[in-house]
Amino acid sequence: MLVALTMIVSLFAASCGLAERAEQAARSGEDGGGNVLTVSVFGGDWGNAIQQHVIDRFEQQTGVTVRVQINTSTLALGQLRQDPGIYDVVLLDSGVSELARAEDLVATLPEKQLTNLGRLTNRAALRDQGGLWAVTMGFWSLGIAYNTEKVAQPPSSWADLWDPKFAGRVAVPTPATTGGLPLLLASAEMFGRGPSDVDAGFTRLEQLKVAAYADSSGTASNLLQSGEAVVAAHYNSGTWPLADQGLPIGWVAPKEGALAADSRWHLAAGSPKRDLAAQFIDFASGVAAQQGLVDDLYLAPADESVQPTGKAAERMPWGASGSLKDLRFPDWNVINAHRQEFTDRWNKQVAK
């Protein structure tokens, strides 16, 4: 009996040891001879496009195995806070990206290894005193989506969200989304003394008669799809897939300017695979990957030499015509400095 018990204990210890070594191997790259990269990306249509145009091609050309984890930016940030080495490469939206950098959760990139860096617009290469810390995958924006069957005259201004004929049939994003706080500051600028006049912004948003508040891009799309909302402050990249499904949905960039955002590649601070991660990010910034992502997701390219083709040309973040210069880029450092304060006030005053 004692011998059997000893064997059981030994086997259990051995299995635990194997599991621990497997975890360490995955982290250190011993599994697969170091040719394993763990990457956090978004899901849905975005995940499918990234898999097709970036991950699959990268694996085919390099022989590297990419382990994919589907996340939102907020979830990925929380995981990095728990373990900065849980991923090698992380895709984060603007706003959350700056938070990750401020908390030293993403590292400086080795610029000399990024052969495509010189092709990117200045806005797509994010630098601070420490160097290059993020590379944009693509730009998108918050504008106005509307039901083409139920809205006779397409909206043209942010002020149209407050048009009495849309009362009770409007959706706007909450601060939990990328566009929520930029919309607050845009409202402050339109209806107050400037973007710092947040009292005016909160007052106007409080007066807005909504069908519902959208705490994600998917929620806004669902509200439009169900007909509960006929007008919504929504992303171009989230709206046009609805039209692709045959739904009567259009999207416009307001005359005051759509509110810009972007999604960015980062090197996780705790990753031991700095060179391999840089190779992946460089590949994702190449012309072929950019072209596929731009055409499939209606993103404005980080590489301005890449031009959208087909219907994507009319579905850019600035609308059917324009450029990055026509977009309004928020100051995320200012927003993040007041993020919790503004979110708490939103919950008490607007979403009460």
UniProtKB/TrEMBL annotation:
Taxon lineage: Bacteria, Bacillati, Actinomycetota, Actinomycetes, Pseudonocardiales
GO biological process entries: thiamine transport
GO MF entries: thiamine binding; thiamine pyrophosphate binding
Key word Signal present: yes
| Extent of the signal sequence | 1-19
**Keywords carried by this UniProt record:** Signal
Pfam families, A to Z: SBP_bac_6
Q: Which PANTHER family match?
A: ABC TRANSPORTER SUBSTRATE-BINDING PROTEIN, THIAMINE-BINDING PERIPLASMIC PROTEIN-RELATED
SUPFAM superfamilies linked to this entry: Periplasmic binding protein-like II (SSF53850)
Query: Can the keyword Signal be found in this entry's annotation?
Result: yes
- List the record's Gene Ontology CC terms alphabetically: outer membrane-bounded periplasmic space
Q: What is this protein called?
A: Putative spermidine/putrescine transport system substrate-binding protein
